[in-house]
Amino acid sequence: MSPAAAEADAAVETVREVSRRFRAGDFDGAFRLYHPDISVEQPASLPHGGRHTGLLGLADMAAEFGRHWERTIGEPRIVGLGPFVLQMTTQTWTAKGTGRSATVDVVELITVADGLVTEIRVFPQDTHLVLATLEAASA
After folding, report:
1. Quick check: is 138 in a domain?
2. Residue 98's domain spans which residues?
3. Within a domain: residue 139?
4. Nearest of 66, 72, 63 to residue 93 by alpha carbon
5. What is the per-residue pLDDT for 87?
6. Rounded to an integer, what distance in angstroms lies between the CA atom of residue 19 and that of residue 27?
7. In the predicted model, what is the mean pLDDT of the chain?
8. pLDDT confidence of 15, banded at 50, 70, 90?
9. Is 82 a member of any domain?
10. Are 117 and 34 contacting, i.e. CB atoms less than 8 angstroms apart?
């Protein structure tokens, strides 16, 4: 196996393990696979949007997300692209304040180095649909 192929395989395995831990509710275990200086970028239009840096920034982002939504995440589809990994999941976001839900695909471009996730760029399919869950239903 070439060094590039081995790097791609290792990156995919890291993302698979993060996903497995996260979906199992083992958030501390997932965080152990994040680099201390991780950078996560979410769409700025979302309440938890923007660029979040470091484990504390990631925790703050997760807390802000948790104030608004509960989420279920389907089985990931993962493709290695060298040190980058593309992960797509189908997610259902349910607004805590309204009970309204939206199901969207979410694509994440993840960078892995030395067995740790260093960057995640998140691309939800339809932020307007997700944000609409926060609004009360019209009569």
Report:
1. no
2. 3-132
3. no
4. 72
5. 96
6. 10
7. 93
8. very high
9. yes
10. yes
- Map residue 104 onto helix, strand or coil: strand
> With 80 as the cut, is the pLDDT of residue 3 above it?
no
Number of domains, the chain: 1
Look at residue 61 and tell me if it is in a domain: yes
Strand segments, DSSP code E, in the chain are 34-42, 50-53, 69-73, 77-81, 84-95, 101-113, 116-124
Mind listing the pLDDT tens digit for each residue in 77-133? 999 987 899 999 999 999 999 999 999 999 999 999 999 999 999 999 999 999 999
Judging by DSSP bridges, how do beta strands 34-42 and 116-124 pair with one another? parallel
Q: What is the mean pLDDT of residues 36-51?
A: 97
The encoded tokens of residue 137 equal 């239903």
pLDDT value of position 138: 65
Q: Long-range pairs for 101-105 at CB < 8 Å and ≥24 separation?
A: 101/133, 102/126, 102/129, 102/130, 102/132, 102/133, 104/129, 104/130
Contact (Cβ atoms closer than 8 angstroms) between residue 41 and residue 120: yes
**Interatomic CA distance for residues 89 and 104, integer angstroms:** 8
Query: Which CATH number fits the domain that encloses residue 122?
Result: 3.10.450.50
Tokens linked to 127: 């932020």
